Amino acid sequence: MAAKQTEKAGARGGRSPVKKAVKTARPKPAKPAVPAPKSGVLPPRFKQMVAAAAEAMVSDLPQPAPGEVINLGPIAGTGTPTGVIGAGGTDLCEIAPSGQVALAGDTFAGQGVGIGEWSRSMGLHVRPGSLNSAHIEFDFAFGKSSTLYAETWPHVDGGSQLPAGTVQVFGIDYALVTRTANLIPSDTRLVRINATQGCWASVPGSWRAADWQSGNQTQISGYQDGNWVYIIADGFARDHQLWLYRCPATAFTDRNTWHAWGMIGDGPDWGWDQAPSPLNSDLFGEVSLRLIEGKAVLTGFNATTLCVEARVADDVTQVAAPWTPMTTIATQDSVAQNYGGYIVPGSTLDQMVILVSQWHTATGNPYRVLQFVANLNR
């Protein structure tokens, strides 16, 4: 283009066009290509980008004041969208530690107990992105027609088999399953949880009759902390006190390795590998024990006070001690016939999300699960 402009200028001036030499710039040496990162190595600034994206996301989960408890309403069972996926009436719905699936108890296709098809336990898949929101959602269900577990329920009147607590060890989610007749336990076993499909197989060697450990291992919860797993246990029929166990993480599925925390002799000292001693004088039902921000957090149904309660301690051995601070999540006045009380994965001490069940036994409904958020800081 520059040469043509020069020729036109020369013609207008009446002189012969003179072509100027055009200098050719030397090409700059190309920058060496950045080598592809090795497998497992994140690209530069990847972590910063992820953190920025996370900060940009605004959660709709309310922030309670210290000691405050907020009822966010029902998320499963009577009057909720889970009826569309076959769980019109359901309870428990403890969300496994991986945060992908809720373990529902006796579930009915209709809007209450005894309405529609009865499934003895069901898995409700958590809708991605809703776990730590103000309204947890479920996008599909599995284990219908009592197929959640590979083993069948007791084929007797009122026979069922129900989830009775979860523990995660080395990233694997386990559940204790209790077989019952009219909610009285007959035996228990461990199963490995699959977040997307049913037919969960039993862990070999984990079966125990209901009277194992004097009936005090028919309902459990726990967590792994380093090389140890800590397990809190009571009775499925809500007629036992809390006992505490620990075992090597590598041996968790061998229930013979669960050794108790108890009083040494006549006391007053306590220690591990003792005969189990009750952590307090109350009777308990459903329990949830988790390690959150370095604290042992225990929630669940206190069958003595008839309330869902939460406790926080620096040491797991003190989590249910009489002097440990307690926050009441639900009373019989605030939620009639409440029970359950499971911690939702991802909870923090100031935004502790807890699932509380409600079953109006006189009419069979509501039969549902409600979501609460509490600030356990004081």
UniProtKB/TrEMBL annotation:
InterPro entries: DUF4185 (IPR025442). It comes from the Bacteria. Residues 1-40 are annotated as: Disordered. Residues 17-29 have a biased composition (Basic residues). Residues 85-372 form the DUF4185 domain. Residues 1-10 have a biased composition (Basic and acidic residues). This is DUF4185 domain-containing protein. It comes from Mycolicibacterium brisbanense.
